[in-house]
Design brief:
The complex is a heterodimer of chains A (71) and B (367). Chain A is built from three helices and no strands. With 71 residues, chain A is an all-alpha fold. Chain A has one domain. In chain A, helix 1 (2-22) packs antiparallel against helix 2 (26-47). The N and C termini of chain A lie far apart (41 Å). The longest helix of chain B is centred in the first third of the chain and has 35 residues, at 80-114. Chain B has helices at 9-36, 40-63, 70-78, 80-114, 120-136, 139-149, 155-162, 180-194, 200-203, 213-246, 250-256, 268-297, 307-320, 326-359. The two termini of chain B are 18 Å apart. The radius of gyration of chain B is 20 Å and the shape is globular. Classes of the chains: A mainly alpha (71), B mainly alpha (367). At the A-B interface, helix 1, helix 2 and helix 3 of A face helix 13 and helix 14 of B.
Chain lengths: 71, 367
């Protein structure tokens, strides 16, 4: 699984990066790298079986008073 | 301008139908019947009125800033830093969060109802990959595809009509049995799901006649309300409030009971076809606005480099933010996503933006 995922990421990088460098779109390249890094940080741990903290839980705490009203 | 395509009014209405209906038609009836019982259809009608207000709010805000999307005019209204924060909140907590929710619902429905042996990731990755292709090609391609397929879902009307044989009007009685409060509580969920037409705020600048936006928003809100009222009524008339509340997808099961002359059966495949096509467009639109918004927020020259990374984020969000199983997911949607998104992104921030724009005298027809 992890190998497939890494191949997919390499594929994405090979698909986008050469064009960006050729057109000298450095700002776009930085944004692409940040987004891809976030994507990697979210997907690789999941494939390795690590459970990530769920942001929905944080929202649940904030929204609790309202959702209690709706029950 | 990042997007060069233009869409016309009809395409925009069709797009808004595809944004709301695919997921709403399946999940709404069960959710509301649980709170509002046999008066659920009244809740949906009331929600339609509330959505008209939301639509009016968002469109009047957008029309003050012609040619600008939500992400661009947030910056103009609030100043650079605060505007970018609002923009990023919209992207990560609304477009990507709700978008990944749509991916999750799409996959869970197919796994639960049709293919229980297949790993759920197969469906999430497939739908996001296909949507990525559409998003890379721009808004116009997505709209044209949608315009092509949406009329096919007129078949649903025939299927609904066939199911009238099983209906009993007495199942709607007594009306107002539990008083007004459950009906009011029941309006919240359909309001949020239909309120997803706030995505128009990202699309209005690409209309060929932006001045029609008000009409587009009202028509799509009314049509969404009509279809959802009809499907809630269908589930109620066939199953009654007790049974309808216990199905996860009452509309789907309502179609399953159709059997005419032991010949015309298993018409749920029509619903599945609608779901696959509509779910794809829904995911595509959320995906598109997330990518476009990010590119505008970060001042990029092109949005296309972000398409694939955002796709990876969508798939990973969908597999860890929306619960392990379908019961969890419905809890997350009805108890967390619905109130949170309705209050913050569909009413709160647009209202705040409009008030601040009025006070600071930003925008307006003349500029």
């Amino acid at each position: 699984m992890i190998v497939l995922l890494i191949i997919a990421f390499i594929g994405i990088i090979l698909f986008e990066v050469p064009g960006l460098i050729k057109q000298k779109m450095w700002r776009d390249l930085v944004a692409f790298s940040i987004y891809l890094f976030i994507g990697m940080a979210l997907s690789i741990p999941q494939v390795l079986g690590i459970i990530l903290p769920n942001p929905s839980k944080a929202i649940e705490v904030i929204i609790k008073p309202v959702s209690e009203l709706l029950k | 301008m990042l997007e060069h395509g233009k869409i016309d009014g009809k395409q925009a209405i069709f797009l808004m139908l595809s944004v709301v209906l695919p997921t709403a038609i399946l999940t709404i009836p069960a959710g509301i019947v649980r709170t509002a019982r046999q008066d659920a259809w009244l809740s949906v009608m009331a929600a339609t009125l509330a959505v008209l207000l939301i639509a009016w709010l968002v469109v009047s805000l957008s029309l003050r800033f012609p040619g600008k999307t939500l992400c661009e005019y947030a910056e103009e209204i609030l100043g650079k830093t605060l505007g970018k924060i609002v923009c990023l909140l919209y992207i990560w907590l609304f477009f990507l969060y709700a978008g990944s929710g749509a991916v999750r619902q799409f996959s869970f429905f197919l796994v639960t109802a049709m293919m229980p042996e297949t790993p759920i990731e197969v469906f999430s990755i497939t739908v996001v990959a296909v949507a990525a292709y559409a998003v890379r090609n721009g808004l116009e391609v997505l709209c044209r595809f949608n315009q092509l397929f949406l009329p096919v879902t007129g078949l649903l009307a025939i299927v609904f009509f066939l199911s009238t044989i099983e209906m009993k009007p007495a199942r709607l009685l007594p009306v107002f049995d539990a008083g007004l409060l459950p009906i009011v509580k029941g309006t919240v969920m359909p309001t949020m799901l239909m309120g997803e037409i706030v995505l128009l705020a990202m699309i209005i600048p690409y209309l060929n006649k932006p001045e029609e936006a008000q009409r587009i928003a009202i028509l799509s809100a009314l049509f969404n309300g009509f279809v959802l009222t009809a499907s809630t009524l269908e589930a109620l008339l066939i199953f009654g409030p007790d049974l309808a509340a216990h199905w996860i997808f009452p509309t789907f099961n309502a179609v399953r009971v159709i059997s005419i002359a032991n010949f015309l059966e298993r018409l749920e495949s029509v619903i599945v076809a609608f779901w696959v096509l509509g779910g794809f467009v829904k995911v595509g639109v959320f995906y598109y606005v997330a990518v476009l918004g990010s590119a505008q927020c970060l001042n990029l020259k092109d949005y296309r480099p972000l398409v694939l990374p955002v796709g990876v984020i969508l798939v990973s969000f969908s597999s860890f933010m929306h619960g392990e199983n379908i019961v969890d997911m419905i809890y997350y949607i009805s108890q967390i996503q619905v109130p949170f998104m309705l209050i913050v992104f569909e009413v709160g921030i647009p209202l705040l933006l409009l008030i601040i724009a009025l006070v600071r005298g930003k925008g307006g027809q003349s500029s």
